[in-house]
Amino acid sequence: MSQRILLALIALLAAALLGLAFFWQPQPVGRSASSLPSGGDFTLRSANGPVSLQGFRGKVVLLYFGYTYCPDVCPTSLAAVGQALAGLASEELARVQTLFVSVDPDRDTVAQLKDYTAFFHPSIIGLTGSADEVAAVARLYGVFYAKQKASGTSGYTVDHTSVTYVIAPDGRLAANLPHGATPAAIAAAVRKLLSPSPSLKGTS
Ligand code: NI
Question: What pLDDT does 198 receive?
Answer without folding.
Answer: 53
